[in-house]
Design goal:
The chain has 419 residues and is mainly alpha-helical. Helix content is 67%, strand content 0%. Among the domains are: 100 residues, no CATH class; 56 residues. One of its GO terms (biological process) is DNA-templated transcription initiation.
């Protein structure tokens, strides 16, 4: 129950104390109170409201101790005295609208924008968002991103201090600042999902729990900001990508390439949700990526994929967010639409790109195109290079297997005398 309700409780308390670190501590104090009281008095009919009311009462006590209560009431602009004391068996109606009124949703939206504030580093934003909004423990975040628990704890502590030192307002941004702040929130959710969808390191290609956390946050954000087209674009993208997760790995967790995936294992309800969200999406980068994912979803077989449309969409994405990684993806689509020679020309232009120097997918794509052209010796060398750069164990093994297969094929084609 606490994990489900913690984000709303922290959001509601943050509006009172104006400090997410203190708000989280007060929410945890409410949990301790529940663990002490509920076994004796019974679980209340509305346990979420009980936790919220308890946390807010503790916040009020803290405010009273720190400064004049009347001054704080004026700052907050609400009559906090109306919050009823929690009863053990009573359903507690929160005076600030915990029963579903917009006030709590507004607080939750404020918390999202606070946790994803640009004053924080990307790593700090991700960790703080998963902690405050995802309900993950420090240990769970550390395991998900394969870093030390102490490192994650430091990131979270520093993030809270940074927010407090910068006096970041607990508010939903409007005006000129809004677009950049929304982009920051979307970036955090997208990064969390991507780490789950294709882990950068470790022995697991996919970490479904991270994908689920990111998709849930995206859906919550869409519910709180229904008029933001790019939010729906992100939701659409994540719904489509999530629909393919079960087919991306084999029985032993080995990667399964898109061409070899059993599309009967793609999740059709998630694909329908993706299509519905795409209808509300805009023309930004997440919306374009969602349109690309929709092209894959519409193809009942790999051979039916509209690669020309996908290549055109990647061209549009390049115009919105120029990136060598986007151009590499476009090269793949071009190779499927126009042939491997056309794709290789694009890839060769990227060969000297500094940003891709240690990016394992560049030689991986090049190896695939060379293999399709029958240049298997060169392909083997590219797959071996890609394997040496890959940080994910599953990807590395797949690339080594492709290198070995290319070498065997090259030897067989050369004949017994090597000619």
């Amino acid at each position: 129950m606490f994990r489900i309700e913690s984000a709303r409780i922290i959001a509601g308390v943050t509006r009172i104390v104006r400090d997410v670190g203190i708000a989280e501590e007060l929410a945890q104090d409410a949990l301790v109170a529940a663990l002490e009281r509920w076994p004796r008095a019974g679980v209340p009919d509305n346990p979420g409201a009980w936790l919220m009311a308890t946390a807010k009462h503790r916040a009020i006590d803290l405010v009273r101790r720190q400064e004049t209560y009347a001054r704080k009431l004026a700052e907050v602009g609400r009559s906090l005295e109306d919050v009823p004391p929690p009863g053990a068996g009573d359903a507690v109606e929160d005076a600030d609208g915990f029963d579903g009124i917009d006030g709590i949703d507004d607080d939750l939206l404020r918390l999202i924008f606070t946790a994803c504030h640009p004053v924080l580093s990307t790593e700090a934003r991700v960790a703080l968002t998963l902690r405050l909004l995802g309900g993950l423990t420090t240990a769970e975040i550390a395991r998900a991103f394969l870093v030390g628990e102490a490192t994650v704890a430091q990131r979270i502590v520093r993030a809270k201090r940074t927010l407090a030192k910068a006096a970041v307002p607990f508010e939903v941004p409007y005006g000129a600042d809004r677009a950049g702040r929304v982009a920051s929130v979307l970036e955090v959710i997208y990064l969390v999902f991507n780490e789950g969808y294709s882990a950068t390191a470790g022995d697991d290609l996919v970490r479904p729990a991270l994908c689920e956390d990111a998709l849930r946050l995206a859906r919550v954000l869409a519910g709180l900001m229904p008029r933001e087209p790019e939010v729906h674009g992100l939701v659409s993208l994540l719904e489509f990508q999530s629909s393919r997760i079960a087919a991306r790995t084999g029985p032993d967790g080995e990667p399964v390439l898109l061409a070899d995936q059993n599309r009967a294992h793609w999740n059709r309800p998630l694909m329908r949700r993706g299509a519905e969200a795409l209808l509300r999406a805009g023309r930004g980068p997440y919306s374009v990526q969602a349109a690309i994912a929709a092209c894959h979803a519409r193809a009942l077989r790999y051979e039916d994929t509209d690669w020309a449309a996908i290549a055109a969409l990647y061209g549009r994405l390049m115009a919105l967010t120029p990136s060598p990684v986007v151009e590499l993806n476009r090269a793949v689509a071009v190779s499927m639409a126009e042939g491997p020679e056309a794709g290789l020309r694009v890839v060769d232009v990227l060969a000297g790109e500094p940003a891709l120097k240690d990016y394992h997918l560049l030689p991986s794509v090049r190896g695939d195109l060379l293999e399709r052209l029958g240049r298997r010796g060169e392909a083997r060398a590219q797959f071996a290079l890609a394997a040496s750069l890959a940080r994910n164990g599953r990807e590395r093994q797949l690339l080594l297997e492709r290198a070995e297969r290319a070498e065997r094929t090259a030897r067989a084609a050369a004949g017994p005398d090597g000619s």
